[in-house]
Amino acid sequence: MTQHLCDRNPIVAPETLIAEMVPPSTFDDVSFDTYIPSPDEPSQAAALAKARDFAERARKVRGGGGKRGLFSRKSSPAQGIGLYLDGGFGVGKTHLLASIYHSMPGPKAFATFVELTQLVGALGFINTVERLADHTVICIDEFELDDPGDTMLVSRLLTELSGKGVSIATTSNTLPGQLGEGRFAAQDFLREIRKLSSIFEPVRVDGPDYRHRDLPPAPEPRSDDALVELAENTPNATLDDFTALCEHLSTLHPSKYKALVDGVSLVCVSDVTPTTDQSVALRLVVLADRLYDAGVPLTTSGCKLDEIFTEEMLAGGYRKKYLRATSRLLALSRFAEVDAA
What we know:
The chain is an alpha/beta fold. It contains 13 helices and eight strands. The chain is globular and about 60 Å long.
């Protein structure tokens, strides 16, 4: 019997949300030693050295704070330190961030910027601070500045945590068209988190996208009949109508999307159409991220996956999100083509 994502309504405990704040499985085995800087890009070797140094200093911050003297109260924890890796797509920033995570003692956390905002939404601000205050480091991948409310929320959260001795490492992507514009992203980052800017050291990582290949265009959508047949003959596959799936996503907190696709081997979506609603599009971005992190292939009928986000949306403030989601959706659809071959 074919399964449907629309029939799932997962319940995720707060402890599970915290426990799942780890690097994607593709970064399980990375380390500083496995990061190979390009000899043509000196900034990569410099960034590797800075990341190693950050991890060493962050361990000392947590190890040296909060000691109790014989006749004194427990001292205040040392201020956490910060590292910001700024650069284009595919230069190894996430590799370095995951290496920092793996080199640090626990408790520790790794999350995307979006996942961190979702955690606060699910648990509440005070509860989130309490659950993360004893961490040695928080690693935040893909720090985003496109939503002022979210930026202020995370800035306040990081201010609270760094004051409790938690060190912060983060990355962000400079769009290809903005490379060379005076370190555009780093300037914006430090301005938007001005209360925290004194603890962050911005480090530039340059180079071409190592993942860039002469990839084929987006796979052609399947027919509805072929999609149904594939879903019925693939164990643990799901089959959903695009409009119904978008409506179902609106009923779930984004922090549940990971659990939504847990155990799914293939996601089949019929009658995909271009999205004109910003809220729907942003939910699809989160779903694409969760599918990509879990390595779940995706195949569809309807329009091509590189047509989901309209030109108007790609020209707007969430351009970076939509470009990343499109890239990931296309990769997942190519996984499905390989599996079906």
